[in-house]
Amino acid sequence: MTGGSAQQTGEPAFTQEPASGRLLRLLEEGGARFRRIEHEAEGRTDVVSALRGNDLAQAAKCVVVRVKKTKKTSHYVLATVPGDRRVDLGRIAELCEARHAMFADQPTAERLTGCTSGAIVPFTFDPALELVVDPALLAHEEMFFNIELDRSLALDTEDYVRLAEPRVESISEELAVSEEVSADSGR
User: Fold this and answer.
1) Neighbour count for residue 2 (Cβ, 10 Å)
2) How far apart are CA 187 and CA 184, in angstroms?
């Protein structure tokens, strides 16, 4: 697992084990400070944050982005931003020196992450998926995210950075007042 760049052409690699199991093992073996939170099944960032009782700015919203460098070369990024912001696709394309960036389709996102849509964790276990995290999310002592639609983690942010080794870049923009916060749309 690394935040390093992974170029690829064609279809993404498939993950075998669900990411939640691999993640919990990584956190336990890495001595991370975290706690589990059970709640109603929910994948929308704003709604699940209310269920968990955390500030929206502490919620990790994770979106898989397909970056087109050339007509034949794609690069995938797991863009992770605070729940009160949205992914800036133009900024991701710029960071990757690409022509275009777009949200990956749901089957591709689920294959690359090993997660159900609405419960994508802010860790990568596939070398074809680069982890990029917005620094605004790391400004809090603790961050929150779903590991399943009905289970979340509250994770110490320092432990997250140590174990996930993300590339930290400004990749978010503020939401307009009228925009709905959604884990699946990146907005």
Assistant:
1) 14
2) 8
Residue 171 contacts residue 60 (beta carbons within 8 Å): no
Task: Give per-residue pLDDT as tens, 23-36.
Answer: 999 999 999 999 99
Coil, helix or strand at residue 52:
helix
Q: How far is CA 134 from the centre of its chain?
A: 10
pLDDT tens, position by position, 155-183: 999 999 999 999 999 999 987 765 544 44
- The tokens describing 149, both together, are 């639609």
Model confidence pLDDT, tens digit, residues 104-129:
999 999 999 999 999 999 999 999 99
Strand pairing category for 167-168 and 129-133? parallel
**Contact (Cβ atoms closer than 8 angstroms) between residue 76 and residue 65:** yes
User: For residue 57, is pLDDT > 70?
Assistant: yes
Based on the number of CB atoms within 10 Å of its own CB, is 75 exposed (0-12), middle (13-18) or buried (19 or more)? buried
Helix, coil or strand: residue 75:
strand
Return the closest-CA partner of residue 43 out of 150, 172, 153, 187: 150
Per-residue tokens: 111? 């294959």
Cβ distance 106 to 120 under 8 Å?
Answer: no
